[in-house]
Structure formats: structure tokens, C-alpha cells
Design goal:
Blueprint lengths: L1 E8 H8 L4 H4 L7 H10 L9 H6 L19 E8 L10 H8 L15 H11 L19 E2 L5 H17 L3 E4 L8 E5 L2 E15 L4 H9 L8 E14 L9 E3 L10 H79 L9 H15 L13
Parallel strand pairs: 3-6
Antiparallel strand pairs: 1-2, 4-5, 5-6, 6-7, 7-8
């Protein structure tokens, strides 16, 4: 990740935002689409209205808003401090992923829930009986179901979206499941041998909690009394999210806007799930290759250490053998000296106790001499 600055002129920015959607252009500058729109407002650069890109996609003629003239003193440039991350244009996707993406067709969500998927039926049954949490969203902690976190009023809409999404994924041969006992709860899809988690969530608005009269009385009466600092209320705006920390540069979140609805963004969601899976698979293969090389290096080092240890033991044994040989030679010379000295004093080697001592001493010298055993260069069975 590199940091650098770039100064952009309003004329260039105008051409860019009318050639590339802001959501795709902003990551190239290392900023969010909201941040890029703020720069456009600062430089008085108009941006395409809602629905513009959909019309362009369907070859409908649209007019560009002209770039207005600046008043005296208004800025013409803006300097952006870019934190450069990997962006989608820099990522090379596999041929397999590109082939899958080429076959993805536009996804439309029906106005009514029809032919509900078994997982949708299970989820609806679980959430219809569920209570709302402190954020105003339904969740049944006792049963595993699709990862849908919405209020009662938006349950049917979320089920329609999820049902359509699951059907579209399965149409392409992808398996959708709910997390098993070894996984966290959630909705998963297997693409390119990778398990990708995704969910639907309704955002909540946070407001400061206004204590009730009872809470005020409790605070006066009990020193340990307390209450929540904030209240949360469902906003009615849904968010679709691919729950993956990897795949930097790939969009993973889509939310309702003033006009835009997530129902119209499912195609892009599916495309990006494939992209995330492809990147995740590439990362996994590279990680496994690194681990394989690391394991090979570890084994190589272990083998070198083993051979080094064997060599050290051989050298130590060689020195021990040489020392025993010298010791046995020294003992024999001493035995000869004892015999000579005893003869000078009139002892016979056949007389006890000299004879017994000589037998004992010679046996000890013979046992100590390594040359009386296997040669050191001979392999032992």
C-alpha cells in the first residue's frame, strides 16, 4: 500500500465521472464514492443522475449535464491524498471465473414471494416466531436460518430478495447452505471450491435515549440502577453484503438509496461473489504453496540437522576410539614394565599373584583396544 498525492482538474474530473460510475471511479483514488461526490460538489462538477447508467446500458440516449462555468475565486483543482489499494481493474481473474461471469444474466425480484426455496421456508417459519432485538430486527437464536436481519415490516421483502438470489445462484450450479455446527451462523454459497458468506441487513438509526420517569426514579433510589445510552429504530433501508475480509478493491456492500433499491443490484452482487471467490481461491492456493515450500524447507533443514548430528556422533566416536586405543597401548606398555621390574626382582610370570594380575590387566587392555573389535569403517548389522 503506497501513499501519494494527485491533483485533479475539474475538466478531467467531469469527463471521468461521465465515463465511469462514481462507485467504480472512487476506489481508483483510494476514496469512497461519497468522498468523490464531495470533491465534485466542491469543484462544481455535475454527476450523472440516478438511472443514468441503466439507460446507457440499454442503449437509451441520454444527455450529459454541461460543465458550468466557475465564478471568480472558485477552485478549479483538488489535491487527493491517495492510499493506493488493489483495485478491480488491476486484478486478473481466472479464465474459469470470467466464464462464469459471462453467463450471469440480469436478476429480477418478483413483487410476490413465489416458489419459496426450502431455506426460505425454514427462515420464514423461524423469524415469524422471533422477537425483535434491541436494534428492532428479528432473529431466532434457537434456530439456524438464512442470515436475514430485518424488522417485521421488511421481512417479506427480504425473503423475496433472498429467495431470488438463492435461485439465481443455484441456477449456475452453486450450492447455498446455512452454517453447520462447525461454522458461525450465516448464509454461505460455494463457488470455485470457496465458501462465501453473505447476508441481508436492515440498518438501524441510533438516537440518544431519553430516560423514562421510572428510570429517573430508579436512578434516585438505587445507586446501581442504569439504562441504555441509546435507542435503535429500524431505518427501512436494506443492505446486501458479502462478508469477506479479503478481495480488497471489490465492492462488497450495496444499500438502498433515495431511489435505488438493492433488488436492482443482485446481478452485480452475484458477479462480485464470483470475483471474491476467485480471489479467495487464488490467495488460498498461494498460501498453500507457501506452506508447502515452508514444509519442504523445514524437512530439508531437519534432514541437514540429522546428518550433522550423525557426523558429530561419528567424530565423537572416532575420538573416543583413538583415546581408547592410546589408553590400551599405554596399559600394555605399563604391563611390560611391570613384568620387567618383577623379573629383575626374581618373580616368574607363572607365579601367583603375578600371573593372576597379568591375566586381569591384559584382559582389560584387550577389551579397551577398539582394534580388537569391528573396524570403524565396517558397517554394523
Amino acid at each position: 500500500m503506497d501513499d501519494k498525492t494527485i491533483t485533479i482538474h475539474r475538466d478531467d474530473l467531469y469527463h471521468q465521472v461521465w465515463q465511469t460510475p462514481v462507485s467504480r471511479l472512487a476506489p481508483k483514488y483510494g476514496i469512497s464514492d461519497v468522498g468523490l461526490k464531495k470533491i465534485c460538489r466542491k469543484l462544481n462538477v455535475p454527476t450523472p443522475p440516478l438511472g443514468y447508467w441503466a439507460k446507457v446500458q440499454h442503449n437509451i440516449r441520454v444527455e450529459k449535464t454541461p460543465l458550468p462555468k466557475l465564478k471568480h475565486g472558485e477552485p478549479q483543482t483538488h489535491t487527493i491524498n491517495i492510499i493506493h489499494h488493489a483495485i478491480e481493474d488491476e486484478i486478473e481473474f481466472s479464465t474459469e471465473a470470467q466464464e462464469i461471469i459471462s453467463k450471469i444474466v440480469p436478476i429480477k425480484v418478483p413483487v410476490r414471494l413465489s416458489s419459496p426455496h426450502p431455506l426460505v421456508i425454514k427462515t420464514r417459519a423461524a423469524l415469524m416466531k422471533a422477537k425483535s432485538d434491541k436494534y428492532g430486527c428479528l432473529y431466532n437464536w434457537h434456530k439456524k436460518h438464512l442470515d436475514i436481519r430485518v424488522s417485521t415490516g421488511f421481512l417479506n421483502r427480504a425473503l423475496r430478495i433472498m429467495n431470488c438470489l438463492i435461485r439465481a445462484l443455484e441456477k449456475h450450479g452453486f450450492e447455498v447452505s446455512i452454517g453447520n455446527e462447525n461454522e458461525s451462523a450465516g448464509t454461505y454459497v460455494i463457488i470455485l471450491e470457496e465458501k462465501i458468506k453473505f447476508y441481508i441487513q436492515e440498518k438501524s438509526r441510533r438516537t440518544d435515549h431519553i430516560p423514562t420517569e421510572k428510570e429517573k426514579e430508579d436512578l434516585k433510589r438505587w445507586h446501581y440502577a442504569s439504562f441504555d445510552k441509546y435507542d435503535y429504530n429500524p431505518s427501512g433501508k436494506l443492505t446486501l453484503k458479502i462478508d469477506a475480509w479479503s478481495a480488497s478493491g471489490i465492492r462488497k456492500r450495496w444499500s438502498d438509496g433515495k431511489i435505488q433499491r438493492v433488488e436492482n443490484l443482485l446481478t452485480e452482487l452475484v458477479v462480485n461473489i464470483v470475483k471474491v471467490a476467485d480471489i479467495k481461491r487464488t490467495d488460498r492456493i498461494e498460501r498453500e504453496e507457501r506452506m508447502r515450500r515452508w514444509e519442504e524447507e523445514r524437512k530439508r533443514q531437519a534432514e541437514l540437522e540429522r546428518l550433522h548430528q550423525i557426523e558429530e556422533e561419528r567424530l565423537q566416536e572416532l575420538e573416543n576410539q583413538a583415546n581408547r586405543w592410546l589408553k590400551s597401548k599405554q596399559l600394555r606398555e605399563y604391563i611390560y614394565a611391570v613384568v620387567d621390574a618383577a623379573s629383575e626382582r626374581g618373580f616368574s610370570i607363572n607365579d601367583d599373584p603375578l600371573k593372576s594380575w597379568l591375566n586381569w590387566a591384559n584382559n582389560h587392555a584387550e577389551n579397551m583396544d577398539p582394534l580388537n573389535k569391528d573396524f570403524p569403517f565396517e558397517n554394523k548389522a
